Known about the structure:
Layout: E1 12-16, E2 23-27, E3 32-36, H1 41-55, E4 60-61, H2 66-79, H3 97-109, E5 116-117, H4 118-124, H5 131-139, E6 152-153, H6 166-175
Helix pairs in contact: 3-5, 4-5
Amino acid sequence: MDSQGQDGQRVVWAVVDSRIGPLMLAASGQGLVNVVFHATGPVCERALSRLAARYGTEPVEEPGAPLLAEAIRQVEAYLAGERRAFDLPLDWSLISGFNRAVLRELADGVPYGTVVGYGDLARRVGQPGGAQAVGTAMGANPLPVVVPCHRVVESDGGIGGFGGGLETKRQLLALEGVLPEPLF
Length: 184
């Protein structure tokens, strides 16, 4: 594979250290396309293979690429408590259908410092009774942190699951003032 896909698409990526562990961020010409937790060794390799298969091009490590550099800056500012919302173009091509509708509603309709229940989010996208399907959509979120799946919680007050691990979810909710600061 070359560095540009069939449609001339280029994918750039970088791994950044953060207070929640190493994050891989990847961007296409359309926008930020992927954020991956625990981005070391095999985790990075799997993510890069998925991106290569999707775009028909080998992703290039290029943290200074303009869109990627801006995404890194905004994620770092968010994790430092200096940013409450992201202003980035997003490439939604890794997700479709119901999952995309749920994640777009989450991105647009659940602001910093608030949470929403799985069932409530299902109702917002016209699928009452779809709480489990919302959970599946959260697990498939290719843009965690930026599309804030950590803000989706159980109706009984539990924090629910999280692809980045429950401790990471607690840290993000504490950062936003939803939970007390974790003791670690």
